[in-house]
Write a structure and sequence with these properties.
- The structure is a homotetramer.
- By secondary structure, chain A is of the alpha+beta class.
- Chain A is about 35% helix and about 15% strand.
- Chain A contains ten helices and twelve strands.
- In chain A, the strands form four sheets. A four-stranded mixed sheet of chain A has the order 10-9-8-11. Chain A has a three-stranded antiparallel sheet with strand order 1-4-12, with helices on one face. A three-stranded antiparallel sheet of chain A has the order 5-6-7, with no helix packed on it.
- Chains in contact: A-B, A-D, B-C, C-D.
- The interface between A and D is large, with 36 and 36 residues.
């Protein structure tokens, strides 16, 4: 890049930084410090922890990499707000994040401001910034990822309160009116030798690469995601009572959990209601089904005569048929691919290399993005991943079939 | 009582009400809403829950017993803030009290004010009040009991934060300078046919009666409570490594917990420190030992060649030798008596009968009171009770011996 | 004792030894080595383990105390068949006793023969025997205790097999025809200052002494034990669905266990059946109720308007009214007394002192004896003890009332 | 096939049946009924259960499919010995298989004889047999699979006995002397578009097909399996203490299990010993490493600078380089492929369709075969599968590298 181009890129980065950081703050608008303190299960962190951890990321990996790093805002935060980076040292216990009433939300917002100030300094000095632009970008993507988790976790926290608190009058997971109640139709793909994985240029996580060839047999992919109405038919047909429809681990989960419907569904007074970020709402039959785990997705697919797509099928289809409804912005779509390294995968060097690689076991891949994903955080090659039993993510179903 | 006496009693009750309720509020002075939200384990409730539940008690059992009870402040609180009274109906899950960010602390303080207002109305109307004075007194004793639990629970909540937050600069469990480092001496009691249990007149819980006869063999009781210094000698002598000193269940607890010292003790840099309500403090050898469970108390007693007293021995001694140091106001003293009904025990009628009786199994009795017990909440006949493994109460040891 | 008396006592001891040891062997008649291998839960040991452990007791505590002890039959048995005596050293894990297919049952029976041979030697030499007679007697009482446990545990082991195996055509817990279906009547006792605990002379465990005074208020004790028919009325009246009848821990147990009837009761084809040591049998309404835990006993008593007796009441009544039906030989009778030391209790010295004392916490006392108790193993002062939730013992209910 | 060919095939089947069934019996030679009763964990079944279940398979799926099926030997066995086929109905609890002392081993051997007799009848009648030959073959492969599990499970059962029982003087997992102590060398494969999956003709499980194309990047595969000596170097280099070498779930497993060496390794008197089917043996440095789970395999690979192969790489290499040492007959080799359906996979129809498909989640694939695999049960396309944490299988490591 020439000077002017770099100048412009830097300005863009500074602008992106400001915008992304502001959006995290926007997400807690209307919430109390008590709301931001909640931790309803070990997997779901308090919102204030997300706010602090994303800040810690910049302080540790970006500012900490400067030749003369500034003094840490509070040296004790290094342990408190480390999520899982063993390369950085000790960590506070994940399950006990909800027990940190100190530092207060106010102190954490102050921490954000101080780090923002230091970052703005850096963003204004091209020479210092140059070797760190990739890490700054990674930090922003990281914060966006946590922005989705903030909503995901808040929904779970609030769902434990019998008063059904609402985050907003109209929450992001409101029914998408474009989702039809018409029967699902399928698009056919010829397969063959295809390329998947992040292309050169543009940001991607290390787990999205390297781009590589895969062989695909012909297949079909549904034109839309499964709707609540579709899933009601599965329930009505005894879907949760028929072991032959389920994977063995899935059936064990149904029995242990006494599962009879997706997470956040409630049946009362002979009608279905959904707990949403806007409180309790009547079930919209046309809206995309959300909050099913892989077991439910797989059982539904078997019942419907189809199957889940592989992640390669999904990505290939997204490249060739971006007009398929609901690929992005509705629900993460479970695939039947395990989250494992691509051929030739190399984790990023240093502690940030722990970001993705060490989780490549016992998880399944989800593709697309959800109504809770921040704008600009969706990519064809994006690999989201969760254990097969996880329901609290904004996860749904897109069917596939052999051609 | 004649009119004037009753008038005076009522004024006393109104004054006691105001004072007791104000002290609960005083306890959270300096704490944030986030602090009051914490729940570190199922047995320890959030402070805001204590504030609401004690209010619920008056609203449900006193105001609710009026011929025309006022509308509930919020009908949903009936379930949310019921602790365990099955006679009242459904209850929110104990382990999930920490997940109620709504109602906020502010709303709960508002709830307190509204109920206080209704109660003041009642306290000013002798005719309405007359049949309810016993329940009002019970409600105040109940609130005092929760005042101690607020400090007990807060200490546990804060102990989970690696920043070691302090509640006050000088906390109630500060070392009692009167506790000596001199060897323990014993007072001898002749025993015989004695009376224990609450005498007529004055308030007592139903579990303190009826007053009844017991036969006591001659015994000796220590002139003071066991000190930190005494217990250090037990540790130094391998107390936590010698199974022959422990009850079988106690030794299982030691092994599973990897127990090597009382709760809140930390050994760092070759010295012992205590986590207290005033933060981390150096261990005071002269101060009364606190936060041991019955297993530790029993093992210490066996090691020292003594034993724990029975609750009848303790109460008899307290009646005859009130000058024994530290009977009240230091630490609850474990007895080797199980918490079981006295001969002829009858639980109070109605839902308040659930207060004590249904817990009479799998618990051991503690006597006296602690540094965290509110003034006026101590009695010779008071029976505190906790499971043998409980450490988070302000519990210590007074030795006994056969005479 | 003069020489002749001692001679006679020794002959009696030798005779008792032979008889007691033979009865253990008689108990496994008709059982396979596979049957004797079963361990259905950590609390219930394999029958072959009982056979070995009781032998280990003589080898370790009696033969091992000789000036020149014989070589151990197999030195590895010292660890394998130690139950809980930490004074003896390491122990095999209780929960893994069922994983010892080696030594085989045959080898264990051989072990018994060898130790019996060595013991017979000893029993024939009065001079050597003299200092050990108390330990021999203790060993025989110990073996009798395990004889009851063999039947208790076998019943539980077999109950896990859907084929309902039978131990005998007619098992010891067959209905006692004397148990009436007439309403329970009560005998009145005046109480006062009474003596309880093992009197001088005759064998007793250390936990039965010292004999001591207790003050008893007037009370009533039922003339018979609760029958199956009595308990059916409790069930029919919704006994298992009414929390107000239960201790708090008891109600938690009901909910977690989905308890709806005593252990070994099955409801099929609109009739109740009992799993017994003679296989599945129709429920006999007149027979004494068996296999309830303390929670069930306490809830039944509350429902019936009575209560459980204390152990002092039971023992006093047994001394004064030995004609009360079913005090011995039917079911162990739950008392509402915790298993704690008597005033002045001293455990026996040495490792056998671990026999009783270290279990004096978190257990409740049962009195009397059951249909599975060997002849000669019943005493007024006998203190059996189990945790409040234990159902697999031959435990039932005798009601008491305030007079 | 013409008549003569079919005749000959049938004779082969009858011969194979006799031989396979006899080998199961051979495996328990020298074991007692008590040995065959053991169940050391829910995942490991008693040997007598394996003997009965493999017989149940023939009785249910082969004889039960006859137009006039014979009476079942014992109708209660239908439930008792069903493993997981929900299509067949109820099943006895897996974790309680070890509690079935009845039927006895002798009765189960009798059951085997009766079913063998009925099967021999069938095998002698070509017309009846014709539609069932595939199911008979499946039953024999099924029995072979259980033969390996019998040794695998027995090893675990015996490992829980501190007496270290031996199954044979010289057990199948004895060190393979061909395994070198020389540094590992690698063979290079060019990759490209390859075919994997079971070819037409010959038996294979449904999960091995359909045969299909995959694209492989160039890769290298080790000439031999990792040896005990190789793994000692990993241990000596702190392998079990360095979180950066482990997957996140793997490190959690290390911490919870306090893992410091492979299963069955013991360090005593400054030397390593192995528990084997021939009892406790000194560790042979040249022998192939066995009994590691995927976490250990993955950490070792990362430490060594390599990685685990994918199952497609392994199968491709086995087709092209069958001379690689130890592909079969030493240890199952962990791959980094999740156990998921191949493109176009269809489970077999009927209840036998539950054999493989419903386990396709949360498991990783192992390839090759082990020292415990029966002769004739190895194939290039064979897909063995276990959860990542499983250690008790005969599982080891073959390294791969990017080329």
């Amino acid at each position: 890049m020439n000077t002017q181009a770099r100048q412009s890129a830097n300005t863009g980065l500074a602008f992106g930084y400001a915008q992304t950081r502001a959006y995290s703050f926007e997400l807690i608008r209307g919430l109390s410090a008590e709301d931001c303190q909640l931790q309803s299960m070990p997997d779901a962190s308090p919102l204030k922890w997300h706010l602090a951890h994303t800040t810690w990321f910049f302080e540790t990996f970006v500012l900490g990499a400067l030749p003369s790093p500034p003094d840490p805002v509070d040296p004790r935060y290094r342990v408190l707000f480390n999520s899982y980076y063993v390369g950085i040292g000790e960590r506070h216990l994940r399950a006990e994040r909800g027990l940190l009433s100190r530092p207060s939300l106010e102190e954490i917002l102050h921490y954000r401001k101080q780090v923002d100030h230091q970052m703005q300094e850096l963003l204004a000095h091209p020479a210092q910034l140059a070797p760190l632009t990739e890490l700054v970008t990674l930090g922003l993507q990281h914060e966006q990822q946590h922005q989705e988790l903030m909503l995901t976790d808040l929904k779970h926290h609030f769902s434990c309160n019998p008063l059904h608190p609402a985050w907003r009058d109209r929450a992001p997971e409101q029914p998408d009116e474009r989702a039809a109640t018409q029967p699902v139709t399928f698009r056919t793909f010829a397969g063959g030798l295809c390329d998947i994985g992040a292309p050169a240029g543009g940001f991607s996580y290390d787990n999205e690469g390297p781009r590589h060839r895969v062989w695909l047999e012909p297949f079909q992919l549904a034109e839309r995601n499964v709707s609540n109405g579709d899933f009601l038919a599965f329930i009505a047909d005894g879907g949760y009572q028929r072991p032959e429809l389920w994977l063995s681990d899935g059936w064990d989960w149904v029995c242990q959990d006494h599962a009879a419907c997706p997470l956040y569904w409630q049946h009362a007074d002979q009608q279905w209601q959904l707990f949403t970020l806007a409180g309790l709402q009547p079930l919209n039959h046309a809206a995309p089904l959300c909050h099913v785990n892989l077991y439910e997705a797989d059982a539904f697919a078997r019942w419907s005569g189809g199957r889940l797509p592989t992640e390669a099928e999904w990505e290939h289809a997204a490249q060739n048929a971006p007009d398929l409804a609901g690929l992005f912005g509705q629900v993460w779509q479970w695939t039947n691919s395990a989250y494992l390294p691509y051929p030739g995968y190399q984790p990023a060097s240093g502690a940030v290399g722990e970001y993705n690689g060490k989780f490549m076991i016992n998880q399944m891949v989800l593709r697309g993005s959800s109504c809770a994903t921040p704008a600009g955080h969706s990519r064809n090659s994006y690999r989201n991943f969760f254990p097969a039993a996880a329901q609290w993510q904004f996860s749904g179903i897109r069917l596939a079939r052999d051609s």
